[in-house]
Amino acid sequence: MRAVIQRVERASVEVAGEVVGSCGTGYLVLLGVGHADTEATAEKLWKKICTMRIFADENGARRDLGEDRVGCGIFGADMRVSLVNDGPFTVVLDTDQL
């Protein structure tokens, strides 16, 4: 399983012309799932993402994700992802290397 994390000014996900997830300033995670990936693999990756100290609080201090709002697309749907990068900032994670 792989995740590409990009810092964005805004992002949204549409399915059948309807916005199913969106955010303002924050992070967009593009997720690649393989046939051999399991729920345990997803949990391992999610824990790594949540504990990365890349998220800033209102004072600019770095912290982990904590209990912040998380939006998502619809698995298996034909999704249109739109984003405005706030970069350069991209992190690539691979569960084979965690």
Could you characterize what this model shows?
The chain has 98 residues and is mainly beta. It has one helix at residues 39-51; strands at 2-15, 18-23, 26-32, 55-56, 62-63, 79-94. It has a single domain (2-22, 35-97), classed as D-tyrosyl-tRNA(Tyr) deacylase (D-tyrosyl-trna(Tyr) Deacylase, Chain: A, 3-Layer(bba) Sandwich), CATH 3.50.80. The protein is built from one helix and six strands. The strands form two sheets. Strands 1, 2, 3 and 6 form a four-stranded antiparallel β-sheet that branches. Strands 4-5 form a two-stranded antiparallel ribbon. The longest helix is centred in the middle third of the chain and has 13 residues, at 39-51. The termini are close together.
In short:
With 98 residues, the protein is mainly beta. The chain contains 1 helix and 6 strands.
Q: Which features characterize this protein?
A:
single chain; 98 residues; mainly beta; globular
Helix content: 10-25%
- The CATH class designation is Alpha Beta
User: Mind telling me the CATH superfamily name?
Assistant: D-tyrosyl-tRNA(Tyr) deacylase
Q: Report the sheet with the most strands, covering strand number, pairing sense and barrel closure.
A: 4 strands, antiparallel
- Following the backbone from N to C, one meets helices and strands in this order, namely EEEHEEE
Assembly context of the chains: single chain
Present the secondary structure layout.
Layout: E1 2-15, E2 18-23, E3 26-32, H1 39-51, E4 55-56, E5 62-63, E6 79-94
Antiparallel strand pairs: 1-2, 1-3, 1-6, 4-5
